Structures are given as C-alpha cells and as structure tokens.
Amino acid sequence: MSVARPARSLLGRCLSSTRTTPAITCQQLHTSAPRSSRKSRFRNVKAEELGLLRPEKMDKFQKATFPEYTAEEKETLKAKYSPEQLEALEAGEKAVDPKDMIIQGRLRDDPYKPDYIEDYTVLDPRYDLKPTLESTPKEVHWPDQSEWIDNYGQKMMKITDKKTSDQLTRAMVRAMRKVKESTGQELIDLTADELNDIEADPELIKRYVIEEKVPEAEATATGPEFMTRAQAMELDEAIDTEWKKELSKIAEFSNQGEVEPTSLELLEDGPAGFDRLHSAEAADLGKVPGVKGLYKHAADPEDMGQDDAGKFQEIKRLTGMSLKDIRSLLTKGLVTRWVANQTRLGKVRSTSVVAIAGNGNGRLGLGMAKSTEPGVAEETAQMLAIRNMKPIRRYENRTIYGDVSAKVSGTVVELMARPPGFGLRCPHRIFEMCRAAGIHDIAARIPRSKNPMNSVKAAYQALTNQPDPEQIAIGRGKKLVDVRKVYYGGAVY
Amino acid sequence: MPSILNVANMCSHLQNASKARLGITSVKNCKFNLHLAMALHRSGFFSSVYRAGPNPPTPEQMVSAVPEVVTNANVSTMRLWLGLKYWEGKPVLSNARAISTPKRVLTADIQELGRLTRGFPTKLKGGVVPGLNLGECMFVATSRGVLESREAVARKTGGVLMCRVS
C-alpha cells in the first residue's frame, strides 16, 4: 500500500455522502464546453414586477381594448339588428368577463386571425365548415354528337355574347365615372358607389338603370334641377368621347380571358353539370350506350366472305397482308408435344405446338403456342409463325450460302449448300422448313441429339444466320466474285 | 527453326482477341508468325502489322513509322503488333484454326490444294481435310513464302497447310 495518498481520497469516503454529483463522472461525449447548470440565459421578468397586474393599469387596458358599448353605439346597433339579435349580442358580451380576456385571452396577430368585419356571405375554408350540399343526382342525358355540338355551340355563343355585353357595360361605367369626376357636376344620377357596384357586377345595371328610369322621368318633370337641352347634349358628347376611348382601349389591350368562358362554365357543360361541383357521388350513370359498333369483328368486305369469324383480322392488321396472301402461305405444325402443368389440383395437360409459316419465296417464320385445346394451340402457333416471318437468304433462289451450322442445346444442325437439281435431302422437319422457305437444293445433317423441337429451332437459326458475301468483302476490303456466275457468263439467277 | 506450334498459339490468341473486341494485339515475334501475319494482312484480315518492342505502338505509328531495327540486343523484346478489324459489330477475323501440328504436318500438292480451294474435302497423307467454306481462307507455307491457298494455286505451288481463317 502506497503511503503517498492524497488526503482527499482518504477523506473521500466520508465526504461522498454529502456530494450531490455522482462519484463516477459522466464521460463527455462531445467537444463543446460544458455549461455549469441548466438555467435560462435570460432573466424572467414577471408581469407583477412590471406592474401590469395593478388594478388601475388593468382598468386602463380594459378601457382601451375592451370598452363597453356607448349609448350611441347601442343606438346604431339597434338600427342594424333585430331586438332578438341585440339580446343575443348583450348576452354574449356578458358571458365573457373582460378581466379574463385581459389575463387569459390573447389577441391574435397571426395571419390566420379571423377578420370579423364580414357579413358571412362567403365561406372561408380557414374557419368555416363546409356545408353539406344536397345534390340531386339525375338521369344523365347522353346526347348524340350533332345534338351535343349544337347545344355546346349555342351555349358558348350565349356566354360570349353575355361576356362581351358585360365588357361594354363596364367600359360605359368607366366612361361615366370619368365624366363625373372631370366635370364635377351632379348631372349623372348614379353615385360613385353605385358605379363601382355596376363595374363589379354588370348584372346590377338592370336594377339601377331600368328600374329608376320611370321615376326619373317624373322627377325631371317636377324637380328643381331640370337639365337643359344644352347640358344634356354636352353630357352626351362628353360620355361619348370617353366611351370611344374606352372602346379603343379594349380593342388595343384586349384581354381575351375576359370574354372566354371560365372553367366553371365549361364544367357546367359536362355530363353531370353543376352536380360535379359539389357532389363526390356522381349521378347515376343511367343507361350507358354500350360498345355496340366499337368492336369490329364482323367480316371485312375485302375478304369476300372468306373470314366471317374474324379469325384473321388481327394478323391482317399486324402484317398488312390481305387475306388472300395469308391464305396462300404455307403453314404447318412441325412439332407437337403433350405437356402438363403440375398443380395441387392435379396435372393440367395441354398441347404445345411449334409451327412454321413460309411464303415459298424466301420468307420463313417460327411460332410456338400452347393450349389445353390442341386445335387452338396449332392455330395460334401458325398465326404466330405468320407474324414472325423473316427473310431467308437464298443463293440463286434455290439453296443457301455455303455451309452453316447452328446449335440449340445438344442439337447441332448442319446445312450444306448443294448444286441445282440436288433436291432436299434432309430430315423431314428441315425438309418442310426448306419447302416453306423456297429452298430447293440442300443437304442437312443432325449429328448429335435429334430432339424435334431443338432441331427445328436450330435449323431456323442456321437458315437466318447465313454469311453474307457482300459484308465479308467489305470487311476485308477485297473483291469477292461468284465463280459460278463468272463461269456461266451470268446465265444463272 | 521456329516451331509450327507458334502458329497454333497465334490462331487461338487471335480468336480470343477478336472475341474480346481488341483493337490491337501482339503475338510472339518469329518467322512463321511474321509470314502468316503478312499473308493475313494481304487477305484483309488485319488493318496493320508492325514489329515493335513490348509497348504497343499507336495506330499512326503502325502505318507510317519505320519499324525499329532488330539487333541482337533487342530481338528478345520484339513483338508482332497486329491491328484487328471489325465490321458492323462483328470481327472480320472470327475463326482461326491451325491445321498442321508439329506431330502431324499436313502437306498438299497442287491438285489437292485445288480441290480444297474449290471446297471439296480431300484426303491427304495425314488425314482428310474439309474443303473451304464460303468466306474461308487457308494459309499454306510454300517455297515462295506463306501464301493464301488461292495464291498458291495461282502460283502452282503446294506446301504445308498452316491454318484456316474465316
């Protein structure tokens, strides 16, 4: 035991009970300087210390912010509200103690504070609940095209007419206001507010002008301010010039948006009309016209009644060939396999067919299809083969270019070019393929596996991957000559 | 005397290089390789043949610069640099197979070479050799150097069948 022990550690055990911090110091997990204690960096100033809770101060604040209604104010309120409403207002005022308002209430100064100077004619989504609208689903009317176009055209015309007249009315109102401001005479009956209203909503002109015309006539007859003829002429002229100015302004800076129909007006024209505006539930669809006439599986008149079932419609569309051409193609199923899909319900047996299609003149296609119905599989495979037809390179339109071989899995097919008149001395599936493709002289060998499907696939691969002498010549930069052609002086194909 | 095995090595190396779509490759610098490379170049399989040190030359160098003089000091570092060709995404030289091996050297006289060139399989002293296919070339080492089989037939010389290339 070491004698040189600091006194603190000797006394540490006795002192440890008095220590507030734990004996094991917490390891610092960051590099910033530790703060001595958790204390706010700002001194709290209470309302009491500021003297805000003193009664005279509170009274002053109450008078400034929540004053009682004066007698005059009450009079004006009486003029505006019915007695029941007034009673409700007073009860509301009484229900809330202004002292509570001062201490607990908080005057909102946020941007979303309600603006109470309003007449509640407009819904504000910030604090108004959306009213549940009773929309009436109605039977949808499906007009035919000409009827729809007529209706639409009329509607658009009406809207445009109305918008144009509104625009003109607005221009007139502006002209009148200008005349009124410039002359300063009370020759125009309408006040500035009324003019503003009319400009905002040109519909009001009916109310302001036409209704007041009749009493005006009486007034002019008896009234003291009788307008002289000269005055009237002058006024007319002034308004006329201003009106012309406004019109030219419209013509110059014409805002097309002002005359064009709005999206709401267009929506109104939709199948559900305005109901769409409010109701998430669309109106009953009614009787949908159906798909009559939209699907064309009926016989094509070009086919001369050869394809009434429409079996060849799709293939005609895809290949662009006529039915006669398609019918003249040589199609044949070469390989048929009986396959089964093992499910938990048992084996689902189906037939898999590999078919070829060729035009006998240098085009050959391979198609493979599977179906539980053998007939369907065969037919589908043939159609696919027609779709997949590809050009096959033929030397002198009778044999292939050189010897080619292709390998699919364990099956290797070797095809050899042969001289004219040699014939098709090859396995029967390759024979069929050559016949369909229009090859007349060929020898073939399947040295390894003779799997039917793979041998057909390999033969197709070999036929489509023949070397091209032109490309070889270009690649090597050499001239390649067909000696046969030279020997016979070009008297071959 | 260089072994004909070098040709077999060169053939397989060329196949590998063209499968990897290399633009330039090098083979061992020896007499057979050089002559075969020149013959292949004549037949249009290579864009350029150049003898240089271990560092690959630039394509411009291969075409224009005079090759380094081979001396006793640098002969061991010399390589034959071959420019490979491609057309429409496919290598011009895709198959190269040696015919003769050191153990089984196949020679063909003029008649046999003629038959082979016309595409008929021919029985030679060492075995049956299949005839040339469309676009195939056979290279023959003759007393007039390494020639393409058609050249050899034209010059009426037979010789050792080296390799077939397509």
UniProtKB/TrEMBL annotation, chain A:
<dbReference type="GO" id="GO:0003735">
    <property type="term" value="F:structural constituent of ribosome"/>
</dbReference>
<protein>
    <recommendedName>
        <fullName>S5 DRBM domain-containing protein</fullName>
    </recommendedName>
</protein>
<dbReference type="GO" id="GO:0006412">
    <property type="term" value="P:translation"/>
</dbReference>
<keyword id="KW-0687">Ribonucleoprotein</keyword>
<dbReference type="InterPro" id="IPR005324">
    <property type="entry name" value="Ribosomal_uS5_C"/>
</dbReference>
<dbReference type="GO" id="GO:0005840">
    <property type="term" value="C:ribosome"/>
</dbReference>
<dbReference type="InterPro" id="IPR013810">
    <property type="entry name" value="Ribosomal_uS5_N"/>
</dbReference>
<dbReference type="InterPro" id="IPR014721">
    <property type="entry name" value="Ribsml_uS5_D2-typ_fold_subgr"/>
</dbReference>
<dbReference type="InterPro" id="IPR020568">
    <property type="entry name" value="Ribosomal_Su5_D2-typ_SF"/>
</dbReference>
<dbReference type="InterPro" id="IPR000851">
    <property type="entry name" value="Ribosomal_uS5"/>
</dbReference>
<comment type="similarity">
    <text>Belongs to the universal ribosomal protein uS5 family.</text>
</comment>
<keyword id="KW-0689">Ribosomal protein</keyword>
<feature type="domain" description="S5 DRBM">
    <location>
        <begin position="329"/>
        <end position="392"/>
    </location>
</feature>
<dbReference type="GO" id="GO:0003723">
    <property type="term" value="F:RNA binding"/>
</dbReference>
<dbReference type="GO" id="GO:1990904">
    <property type="term" value="C:ribonucleoprotein complex"/>
</dbReference>
<dbReference type="Pfam" id="PF03719">
    <property type="entry name" value="Ribosomal_S5_C"/>
</dbReference>
<dbReference type="Pfam" id="PF00333">
    <property type="entry name" value="Ribosomal_S5"/>
</dbReference>
Automatic annotation (TrEMBL), chain B:
<keyword id="KW-0687">Ribonucleoprotein</keyword>
<protein>
    <recommendedName>
        <fullName>Ribosomal protein S8</fullName>
    </recommendedName>
</protein>
<dbReference type="InterPro" id="IPR035987">
    <property type="entry name" value="Ribosomal_uS8_sf"/>
</dbReference>
<dbReference type="GO" id="GO:0003735">
    <property type="term" value="F:structural constituent of ribosome"/>
</dbReference>
<dbReference type="GO" id="GO:0006412">
    <property type="term" value="P:translation"/>
</dbReference>
<comment type="similarity">
    <text>Belongs to the universal ribosomal protein uS8 family.</text>
</comment>
<dbReference type="GO" id="GO:0005840">
    <property type="term" value="C:ribosome"/>
</dbReference>
<keyword id="KW-0689">Ribosomal protein</keyword>
<dbReference type="InterPro" id="IPR000630">
    <property type="entry name" value="Ribosomal_uS8"/>
</dbReference>
<dbReference type="GO" id="GO:1990904">
    <property type="term" value="C:ribonucleoprotein complex"/>
</dbReference>
<dbReference type="Pfam" id="PF00410">
    <property type="entry name" value="Ribosomal_S8"/>
</dbReference>
